[in-house]
Amino acid sequence: MATVPDQTAVLAALSTVSDPEHGINIVDLGLVYGVEVAPGQVTVRLTLTSPGCPMGNLILGDAEEAVQGAVPPGTVVDLDLVWEPPWGPERLSDSAKQHFGWE
């Protein structure tokens, strides 16, 4: 029987991944659009601040590594890079807004 990954643990792992251009984690930056868990699989819907983000491959690699470390061995991790809805600063968490001096 496959073990169901823990959604809270996945989000916590993703919050350790920083966007090096902005110096803040991808959860607070609002790049994570959703996490779906199922037996033996986790799917993360995420975006980047722009399609031309030069750090995109680094962020995606770090996110996959972080999630792999947070789920049971053998769990399939699927990162679904999406562009709709487009990212915008309204997706920032309150702490991210404070980080940028917007509050």
SSE class? alpha+beta
| Spatial arrangement of strands, main beta sheet | 3-4-5
Distance between the termini: 48 Å
Strand residue content: 15-25%
The residue-averaged pLDDT reads 93
> Could you describe the largest sheet, including whether it forms a barrel?
3 strands, mixed
Per DSSP, the total helix count is 3
Total count of strands: 5
Shape: globular
Low-confidence stretches: none
Any idea what the radius of gyration is? Answer: 14 Å
Order of helices and strands: HEEEEHEH
Helix content: 25-40%
Describe this structure in words.
- Helices cover 28% and strands 22% of the residues.
- The relative contact order is 0.23.
- A three-stranded mixed β-sheet has the order 3-4-5, with helices on one face. A two-stranded antiparallel sheet has the order 1-2.
- With 103 residues, it is an alpha+beta fold.
Please sum up the structure shown.
With 103 residues, the protein is of the alpha+beta class. The chain has 3 helices and 5 strands.
List keywords for this structure.
28% helix, 22% strand, single chain, two-stranded antiparallel ribbon, alpha+beta, globular
SSE order and pairing:
Blueprint: H1 7-14, E1 18-19, E2 24-25, E3 32-38, E4 41-46, H2 56-70, E5 76-81, H3 94-99
Parallel strand pairs: 4-5
Antiparallel strand pairs: 1-2, 3-4
Helix pairs in contact: 1-2
